[in-house]
From TrEMBL:
SUPFAM superfamilies: Dimeric alpha+beta barrel, Winged helix' DNA-binding domain. GO terms for biological process: regulation of DNA-templated transcription; response to amino acid. The keyword Lipid metabolism does not apply. This is Leucine-responsive regulatory protein. Coiled coil: none annotated. GO terms for cellular component: cytosol. The gene is lrp_5. The lineage of its organism: Bacteria, Pseudomonadati, Pseudomonadota, Alphaproteobacteria, Rhodobacterales. Keywords: DNA-binding, Transcription, Transcription regulation. Residues 5-66 form the HTH asnC-type domain.
Amino acid sequence: MAMRLDETDRKILAELQADASQSLDEIAKKIGSSKTPVWNRIRKMREGGVIKATTAVLDADALGLEACFFVLIRTSEHEAEWQAKFLKALMARDEVLEAHRLAGEIDYILKVRVANARAYDVFYQALISEVRVYNVTALLSMEEIKSTTALPL
């Protein structure tokens, strides 16, 4: 069951999504509250699972990870054993930023970040050596138009 959030909770979450490195004093001032109630609300939202983690957002290009591929995977295998093996292979690869199981003609879509096409091929060869897939289509992103981790509140 989802935790009930009021307007103040949503303001706090908006501030944390914009910059989680802000101090409690800064957040409190921006939302018109004081430090202790803000801390208590953040603690409750962490305990309630609304706030999963506090992380730093890194610049992929600055780290030399200039190629972003969306990988469409179709499989003819839908057994639990194959799926477990496939998921284990995905979880073991840092290049996979996102993985989604889909409804429709495509079974899975992956968002993969690598340095270049050669690095993608190394990833691809390793993946298909571990799990059998029917069809793989890789789409190279030419330009990132929008990317955010902020959820609509």
